[in-house]
Design a protein that fits this description.
Blueprint: H1 15-31, E1 40-41, H2 43-50, H3 54-67, E2 70-73, E3 77-80, H4 85-104, H5 112-130, H6 134-149, H7 155-167, H8 169-172, H9 179-196, H10 201-210, H11 213-229
Antiparallel strand pairs: 1-3, 2-3
Helix pairs in contact: 1-3, 2-3, 4-7, 4-10, 4-11, 5-6, 5-9, 9-10
Length: 230
């Protein structure tokens, strides 16, 4: 008597999952600096790179255009969004103002459960860093900051700040792949947790603003050559 073949446990990914995977991989190539600012994104090249159909690649480009990290222009096509030095400074000016105000509104010392939540996120962040898991580093980093800023009690302010965090994603994410920048980020996270236990909002606010300066300077350095050629 023949044994019946076991049904496979792993199902083929759905079209939605395949599309999400193409978007994720293209986003990572951009935000982690594998695709430089201003680089032209050729559909045929991306199809080969991701093993995806033209439809999926185009949908990924449309999605990332909505997120602000891809630029589509007539007679040019899609490129990695290039921000000029002046645009970077202006964007960071707004993000710094939002960050400072949010930190100043946090009631100190914060409740113990928030310290526990941030300490656990920091533990995960360090584990992802040790494993060199770039996606994990990025996701736990943002989760840490959103949990911290949510303590200000104003969800509309936090939402505005999150919008600017997303806008600066191509400028700051590559910094998480840099060993020096990552080590500095880890130390500053630990200090933020300590300051949340005290009563000095001004010190906390200044640290949160200082925390974003390394990535801003790194991006300005990276685009300096591009601007000189424009």
């Amino acid at each position: 008597m023949k044994a019946q073949a076991a049904s496979p446990d792993i199902q083929a990914p759905s079209r939605e999952e395949e599309q999400a995977e193409v978007i994720r991989r293209l986003e990572e190539d951009i935000i982690f600096g594998r695709f430089a600012p201003g680089l032209r994104l050729v559909e045929d090249t991306l199809m080969q790179r991701y093993g995806a159909s033209r439809h999926f690649v185009r949908q990924a480009l449309f999605q990332l255009e909505r997120q602000g990290i891809v630029l589509r222009e007539k007679n040019v096509g899609a490129t990695v969004r290039f921000y000029s030095a002046e645009e970077v400074r202006q964007i960071y000016e707004v993000r710094e103002m939002l960050t400072r105000q949010t930190a100043l509104m946090i009631g100190l010392p914060v409740p113990a459960h928030l310290i526990e939540q941030l300490s656990e996120l920091q533990r995960q962040y360090c584990a992802k860093a040790d494993a060199q898991d770039m996606r994990g580093i990025h996701e736990t980093n943002d989760a840490f900051h959103l949990a911290l800023f949510s303590a200000c009690g104003n969800p509309y302010l936090v939402r505005s700040l999150q919008d600017y965090m997303n806008l600066t994603l191509p400028m700051r994410a590559k910094n998480l792949a840099d060993s020096e920048g990552l080590a500095l980020s880890r130390r500053q996270h630990e200090l933020m947790i300590e300051l949340l236990k005290g009563r000095d909002n001004w010190a906390l606010a200044q640290l949160c603003v200082d925390h974003m300066q390394y990535s801003k300077s790194d991006y300005l350095t990276r685009i300096a050559g591009n601007e000189a050629r424009r």
